[in-house]
Amino acid sequence: MKLRPSRPKKAFGVAVALVAASLLAASPTPASAAPSGPTVLSVTSTSDPQYFMGRQHSGLGASATVSRATLSGGIVMTGAASQPGANDAFTFEIAPATGTQLRIGRYVIPYDPQGTNAYDVRLAVGSTGIDLVGDVEILDLAADAMGNVTRFDVVFRDRTESPTDALFGQIRMGQETDAGLILGTTNIQYPNTPIGSVPIWTQQRVTNTGTSSVPVGNPTVASGAVSDFRIAQDSCGGQTLAPGATCTFDVGFTPTKAGPRAGTVNVKTGTQTKTISVSGSAPRGSTYIKYSGDDYVSGGTVHAFPDGVNSNVVSGSPQTGWTFTPTRPYGLDNDAESTSVRLVKYDYGQIKPGTYKTGNVTGPDAESSAKYGLLVTGNGRGCSSYTGRVTIASFIVGSAGNLQTANISWTLQCKFQPGLMTGSLKWRDRIDKTAPAPVTNIRVNSTNGVRTATWKGSSSTDSPNALARLSRAEGAGSISTSGTSVTRISATSAVLPELQAGHEYTLTVWSLDTAGNVGGKSTLTVIG
Prior knowledge:
Blueprint: H1 16-26, E1 39-45, E2 57-60, E3 64-70, E4 74-79, E5 90-95, E6 105-109, E7 120-125, E8 128-131, E9 134-143, E10 149-158, E11 167-173, E12 181-183, E13 187-189, E14 200-208, E15 214-216, E16 220-224, E17 229-232, E18 239-241, E19 246-253, E20 259-269, E21 272-282, E22 286-293, E23 303-306, E24 311-317, E25 321-327, E26 339-345, E27 354-359, E28 372-378, E29 386-397, E30 403-414, E31 421-429, E32 440-447, E33 450-456, E34 465-472, E35 484-485, E36 487-490, E37 493-495, E38 504-512, E39 518-527
Parallel strand pairs: 13-21, 27-28
Antiparallel strand pairs: 1-2, 1-11, 3-4, 4-5, 5-7, 6-9, 7-8, 9-10, 10-11, 12-14, 14-19, 15-18, 16-20, 17-19, 20-21, 22-23, 22-31, 24-25, 25-26, 26-28, 27-29, 29-30, 30-31, 32-33, 33-37, 34-35, 34-38, 36-37, 38-39
């Protein structure tokens, strides 16, 4: 796992102990900010499990300690080491933008949030600190009159765009559902995962914090995209947990269709049923890297890196160029071949369709009229000076500077070695890029204490489905995998879960088309 450098002028503490000490010194925690209920921490990693960054972390009660919890100063929680003597305790820190306070909602965390209103989120595993780049969602939050946080529920995802070297999890305190048998995770939001990928697993711990033994049923994927989520390594089903005892099972995600995927996992515990909201998404379109030739890099063979077997990721910007790299979660097949493709436009301008001469990514040779640079490497093989041509069928960059789709092909020849390479690359290339029309006319009716939501389906003919999610408050920043799952009973109706009395919720429904495109959201305020 390659760690990102710290954000400018915001270096994370070298050791967790130093982090906690500096935070406490900067903002002493009033006694009233002490946990008002159970504290729970659960973190999943998709790094190589033999590497310390690949270990799973969990904590409950004394092994999930809160060292700061204020609306203006943020929240800091630290879990226990993954195993005795590992010295790899996990710390999560979230702080609001300067001059603001924590609020319920989902927030995108860019690489460098300086000068923006972004939250600052830091992670640490042992003495290694990481600036989170991804998203964080505050599902629930309450505070006293002094601004001391008395209840929270936060889910987070680092490296949301790939299931490789990702960290994602949940921290919470004082939740009403955390009594008796407590689940390590009640809301799992997976990183974006290609169709057909190896399952992305998160371990679920079930702990009996009560005073009586409780029977536990088999965990089941109960609703939603039931073919995309699976249960394995179950030591809970059919067991009776004694007070203080713990059992575990794994929840895996492998999407079968493009776009957002969501559902619920149910666990019968005594006379109650505990529910876990699960969600994730699969990139739309076709993504792969492929090249061959008799040149030094190709070596006379075909090299193919399709999504699914790999997770092809892109990094860069118009100012630095774009680099495409296939990766794999959990360090699988460490001996598998590697590659990268880098495309640069020398004037940093818009990349437009057409066929162009190419040169080096650092700039053209003196005698060259090339406007683009292209570099392909594989298994440590490369060339310091390429010439050739690149054909750009499409290359679309969003308003935020993120690459949305690309389709290019090339012929390359190294100036200092014989042979010719031909290749092609697609990044989420698709014909249908049009979002469907939104659903309309959302209503909620109650019969015998059961609330059912209904809506009018999208007017788009290729949009037979919809996805409903429930968020606290106004659902700020929510996307189609935010909040918690709602049990859909038809394409235009769903049953709401039990809501906490007096609390405000937002029911959001998105239309979905057959290509996985998501329509605009339609919302309705619901009071518990």
